[in-house]
Design brief:
This protein is an alpha+beta fold. The protein contains eight helices and 13 strands. It is globular and about 65 Å long. It binds (3R)-3-hydroxy-3-methyl-5-(phosphonooxy)pentanoic acid.
Length: 335
């Protein structure tokens, strides 16, 4: 998996990986206090085929130069650099060897518009760094733990299909709930606005924790939701899942709307799409919505029904259809 060679006086190794975005059915919204990117609540996501990020990590041993990090061809901003440095330090703690990293990462979809680009990107960087460091690519839990330091939800992109991320007494665990084959739901992504969100998820959740009067209700309910959502997935019970996922999403957004000052991730058109989805379901179409820290609406549909639901919604906005699946693939590397 890892290719190492002497380049000049330095040992250099390269790792490459791709990872897909994941969308939460039960939201990660809140961090443990004092912890590093550990969740306050459990979350369950599903990986999305085709929303893919790729990364190449080149490690130079024997030089003290600073890391060089480029995303979509541009130098990464300071915040992203800091997060990736923390991620790299975690990888080096496993390998026992520090190195200068030269990182190239790119997504094949818009960054930071609530399309989970950072999750896919950070999972790909973690996978590529892990491979470049010569570590075992089968150790998904350890890779997930490093990815989490780049972006919390990135740890869920390390497995395919339905994935749970749960707080524990001393951190968190990641596990696959079911593969995508278990229940191949489909996704209509209703693209209302591809611009970067105004408030990052990290800043947003912190602000809501500190100022929203409904925060404790959210945390209490999120634990119950995760258990019930997992069961609905295992039972392939769409009606139950629809009810739970929409309620979980709306309670998360209740914390943003009741924060002081409020954060408006949703737009007026977001509400219109959400309402239309609920009336389509009342009319017998198997679909439900969820919305993350941005205005776009993710409409999940029963296997084989995405095109019908796309047709029903496409007057409202452009819609892309995706299959679920996803996960992390570490690729063969050559210098
Ligand atoms: O991983 P972050 O810090 O981008 O947070 C993700 C937050 C939500 O997308 C709103 C919810 C989730 O569980 O993905």
């Amino acid at each position: 998996m890892v290719d190492q060679s002497i380049v000049g006086q330095h040992l250099e190794s390269v790792g490459r990986a791709t990872a897909t975005a994941n969308f939460a059915l039960s939201k990660y919204w809140g961090k443990q206090t004092g912890g590093v990117q550990q969740p306050a609540v459990p979350s369950i996501s599903v990986g999305i085929q085709g929303l893919t990020a790729e990364a190449e990590v080149r490690l130079n041993y024997g030089t003290n130069q600073e890391h060089e990090i480029r995303i979509a061809g541009n130098p990464a901003n300071e915040k992203t650099c800091r997060r990736i440095e923390t991620l790299l330090d975690a990888v080096f703690a496993h390998s026992g060897r520090k190195a200068q990293a030269i990182i190239r990462s790119d997504t094949r979809f818009p960054i930071a518009a609530g399309l989970a680009s950072s999750a896919a990107g950070m999972a790909a960087v973690a996978g590529a760094a892990w491979i470049a460091a010569g570590l075992d690519p089968g150790d998904r839990s350890a890779i997930a733990d490093c990815a989490r330091l780049g972006s919390g939800s990135a740890c869920r992109s390390v497995h395919d299909g339905y994935v749970a991320w749960e707080p524990t007494d001393d951190g968190s665990i990641i596990r696959q709930v079911a593969s995508a084959d278990h229940w191949p739901l489909e996704l209509c992504l209703v693209r209302l606005d591809d611009r970067p969100k105004k408030v990052s998820s990290a800043d947003g959740m912190l602000h809501c924790m500190e100022t929203s009067p409904v925060w404790s209700s959210w945390v209490e309910r999120a634990f119950l939701d995760a258990v019930e959502i997992e069961q609905a997935i295992l039972d392939k019970d769409l009606e139950k899942l629809a009810d739970l996922v929409e309620a979980n999403c709306l309670l998360m957004h209740a914390t943003t709307l009741t924060a002081r000052p409020p954060i408006f991730y949703m737009q007026g058109r977001t509400l219109q799409v959400m309402e239309t989805v609920t009336s389509l379901r009342r009319d017998g179409l198997p679909c439900f919505f969820t919305v993350d820290a941005g205005p776009n609406v993710k409409v999940f549909t029963a296997p084989g029904t995405a095109q019908t639901i796309k047709t029903a919604l496409e007057d409202m906005a452009p819609i892309d259809v995706y299959a679920i699946g996803g996960g992390l693939t570490a690729e063969e590397s050559s210098i």
